[in-house]
Amino acid sequence: MIRKINYSSTPPSASSQPQKPRTRRRVSTVEYGLITSLVLQQYRSGEEVLFDRLLALPLDGRIPAMMEQHGAKTVHRLLLMLIQEFVASLELPAYKRPSETRMRVAVCELMLIAQEDYLGVEDLIVFLERARTGAYGPIKTLVNMNALLHLLEQYRQERHTVYIRLKQEQEDAWKQLGPSERSAPRPTPVGDLFSQALVLDLNRKMSG
Questions:
Q1: pLDDT, tens only, 132-166
Q2: Considering only Cβ atoms within 10 Å of each terminal Cβ, which end of the chain, N or C, has fewer?
Q3: Which residues face 48 on adjacent strands?
Q4: Residue 5 lies in a domain
């Protein structure tokens, strides 16, 4: 016996179709926005970076000391959050955005650079915000993150130039003092980012 088959012209329901995974865009967190705002208020005046204040950060509050105190993994997570927020803020198309692995590798590079120049987290926040607004030129792609590290070299050079100038001014001032006692107050620290809460610590602004 031949079974009669009824063919239906009704298309299969949408639920039976394979669903393409949706790409979720990272949304900037309130905490990141608040931290960035506080840092920029303290270390930037208009478009001018207040390198003298950044260079006055105590050594025990900078990234190398944070790595010793809190561990490299903890600092890596913090810096990765900064990079993720930065990449998301550029709103690049998917094929121009770096993968999670490449961002993690770039953070390792940042940690090595921070040890060379004794950078603070504040330095990186100021740099990333300047890069985001095009202060170092347009960012067309971040697939391999080399473009960002290249821009960081410009920031480091600006910072080093100010450091040399301030050092020379300090030496000239010491020469004018003569053999008398020379002393200067220790800069007031911004605060340890990992003490109690990240946001609360950054609320403590530098004095002077």
A1: 999 998 899 999 899 999 999 999 999 999 999 99
A2: N
A3: 45
A4: no
Q: Is residue 191 part of a domain?
A: no
Structure tokens at 119: 């950078």
Domain count, the chain: 1
Answer whether residue 109 is part of any domain. Answer: yes
- Could you list the residue range(s) of the whole structural domain that residue 117 is in? 28-173
Asked, for residue 107, whether it belongs to a domain, the answer is: yes
pTM for this model (two decimals): 0.71
